[in-house]
User: What shape does this take?
Amino acid sequence: MTESVLDYMTRLGRAARQASRVLARASTAQKNHALQAAADALDASRVELVAANQLDLAAGRGNGLEPAMLDRLALTPKVIDSMIEGLRQVATLPDPIGEIQGMRYLPSGIQVGKMRVPLGVIGIIYESRPNVTIDAASLCLKSGNATILRGGSEAIHSNQAIARCIQAGLAAAGLPASAVQVVETTDRAAVGALITLPEFVDVIVPRGGKGLIERVSREAKVPVIKHLDGVCHVYVDSAADLDKAIRICDNSKTQRYSPCNTMETLLVHADIAARLLPALAAIYRDKGVELRGDAQTRSLLGGDVLEASEDDWYAEYNAPILAIRVVDALDAAIEHINTYGSQHTDAIVTENFSDARRFLTEVDSSSVMVNASTRFADGFEYGLGAEIGISTDKLHARGPVGLLGLTSEKYVVFGDGHVRT
Assistant: This one.
């Protein structure tokens, strides 16, 4: 009898749960050996990786995938190099597992502290980019978690080829193959099954478009680490250094248009708008950025600035489009961000310490910045080595999720025959 998708996913889940118990007690040296051996296997399998990737690219062209999607799908020599380097970098990161902090004696004589432990089994659902297979597997492995990886159907051959390299690394370190499992079916029912197996899966991380993340958030019976939108703001305060403001506002928008940490709305204090906006608009126009503004912005910058609608303040464009609003005070900027933002990344440009502190305190986002580009909101740039995604949730992990975000804590107690009286 043919195995159903639910039975198949349950089998993967049961194997992952068993593997997670082995990984939880694996030594740092063992995990690092697996990562380094997987990197060696990738390096030795370049021909096989490219051949598998060509199958996916050919199918993608046949199915009418857009050039941008094909670009994300391609395993170029540079992408393979970066995957190898990523594995080696994660191997050099400090291992958080087993670390005990805050040990203290209590009046009863016992010692109490907290030990960092893995989450257990992490399910990761992602689209397009096969290099995510390596990013996710390496971080889960180093943090002592088993993982079930469900990549997009368009990358099925590439992901399976990468998985074989990871399996070689696990085998070299004496770790179970089920510590990292790539879902082999392209049936969409696999996602529905994975997110409803709380007995085997502890956390789900969706990485992909808004539709995928909304579906996972709506249907999951397992906790989800995610962000839906990246509606990021830069507010230029009346006390801003204008040279800094121009550099930051330019970089926040134009360094790359598609990432979730790119600025989508620029807020400018009315006292400096006439000095700042024309200079910035010239830069944006030169780079082909379409501007949409409120009445004050349009009166300052001229007729080619489109009228911003209410929807523009909520928009994540992922494109060379920018909404601009002139505000009368810091209060109005904070109110705008907390009303229209997505709690992802927001920045203030100011030389006023009090304004900076208020912004940091009152803007309710996972990353809040002073005098820096929003494009820094990234695991690598934060010194995490890598990230599995960005979370705008408030429980467990918030902001870029690196090794620590894939762990939890448990209380540990030391006594010497102590009993409670």
Observations:
- The chain has 15 helices and 16 strands.
- The chain has two domains: 5-225+397-414, 232-381.
- The domain at 5-225+397-414 is CATH 3.40.605.10 (Aldehyde Dehydrogenase; Chain A, domain 1).
